[in-house]
Write a structure and sequence with these properties.
By secondary structure, the protein is an alpha/beta fold. The chain has a single domain, classed as Alpha-Beta Barrel (TIM Barrel). It contains twelve helices and nine strands. The chain has helices at about 20-35, 55-65, 85-95, 115-120, 130-140, 170-180, 195-205, 225-235, 235-245, 265-275, 285-295, 310-325, and strands spanning about 5-10, 40, 70-80, 100-105, 160-165, 180-185, 215-225, 280, 300-305. Strands 1-2-3-4-5-6-7-9 form an eight-stranded parallel barrel, surrounded by nine helices. α7 (about 195-205) links the parallel β6 and β7 (about 215-225). The longest helix has 18 residues, at about 20-35.
Length: about 325
């Protein structure tokens, strides 16, 4: 059975403020824990009114404090935005508070625009140091040596599991070289999924953290009682992607009956190319879609994004997905 996990976007909607979005993410985690999901992650995004997870480590702590067994982590921290030492301190502290439950996924994209990048006091060139930054972070999380003058306290020795995230072949090559688990963001960049997985598996070198490749595939899945209902719920995400192309990153919007009236043909082509691997429908449709994706990719784990506007319906979507995949405890 392939493991299922959740990427929560911590969406701020037209009916929910940031506090509500944060509490909803925690509530998703509580239910997901009961339904058999392995982990729940949140991602670092900046200057986006509709996403409340900018202070990612704080959000991880909020979710972990409300749960007992589910793994909680970042999917991911955009490492070029930060000093590796500070990230080690943050996630090492989380590991001390919630032993054996914290994950740290790392990406090299800024997670924001160039203007906001300057507000973070970083430069686009910082991404060029990503491989070295990953190794530095890993070293700070490892047990400190007897003569080590700079220690990340209380992180040293926690050995928080690291993941490499990616939407291109670069991340696949780096994860393989370092012997780390790899998560591909096919929920918004599906085109290179298969080539990236092939590179990762063929070049993988065992490490102290991981003996054999572990590939996670991000996928949008929206489940409801019928295909028609699920397709209507999916219009929220379709509008969000359309708004990105328009440069209007606002709050999450409620679903609409006619998505064709919202986007232009060109916008539809762009959005649907990014959402090409989405699985939307009834439990039977979702089951068939998940089975087909696993057969095609050999994924060890699926990271589910279920971007549904209404919180109760989003919970129901995750519950139906767990049932369709056979993981409900």
């Amino acid at each position: 059975m392939t493991t299922l996990s959740i990427l929560d976007l911590v969406r701020v909607t037209e009916d929910t403020d940031a506090r509500g979005a944060l509490d909803n993410a925690r509530d998703v985690a509580v239910h997901a824990e009961a339904w058999g999901y392995r982990r729940i992650w949140v991602a670092e995004h900046h200057n986006m009114p509709g996403i409340a997870s900018a202070a990612t480590s704080v959000v991880v702590g909020h979710i972990a404090a409300g749960t007992k067994t589910i793994r909680v982590g970042a999917g991911g921290i955009m490492l070029p935005n930060h000093a590796p030492y500070v990230i080690a301190e943050q996630f090492g502290t989380l590991a001390r508070l919630f032993p054996g439950r914290i994950d740290l996924g790392l990406g090299r994209a800024p997670g924001t625009d160039q203007l906001t990048l300057r507000a973070l006091r970083r430069t686009p060139e910082s991404a060029e140091n990503f491989p070295q930054d990953v190794l530095e972070l890993q070293a700070f999380l490892a047990p400190a040596g007897p003569n080590q003058r700079i220690r990340a306290i209380p992180a040293a020795g926690t050995e928080v599991p690291l993941w490499i995230l990616g939407s291109s072949n670069f991340g696949a090559m780096l994860a393989a070289e370092l012997g780390l688990p790899y998560a591909f963001a096919s929920h918004f960049a599906p085109e290179l999924l298969i080539p990236a997985l092939q590179i990762y598996r063929s070049r993988f070198k065992p490490s102290e953290q991981l003996e054999r490749p572990h590939a996670m595939v991000g996928v949008n899945v929206i489940a409801a009682g019928s295909d028609d209902e699920a397709r209507r719920l999916a219009t929220t995400q379709q509008m969000s992607f359309t708004n990105i192309f328009r440069g209007a990153r606002g709050l999450s919007q409620p679903p609409i009956d006619d998505i064709e009236s919202y986007w232009s043909p060109a916008e539809k082509t762009q959005a649907m190319s990014m959402l090409a691997r989405s699985i939307v429908g009834s439990p039977d449709t979702v089951r068939a879609g998940i089975d087909a994706l696993i057969a095609e990719t050999g994924a060890d784990e699926l990271m589910i994004v279920s971007d549904v506007y209404d919180h109760a319906k989003r919970l129901r979507s995750f519950e139906l997905i767990a049932g369709a995949a056979g993981i409900v405890r």
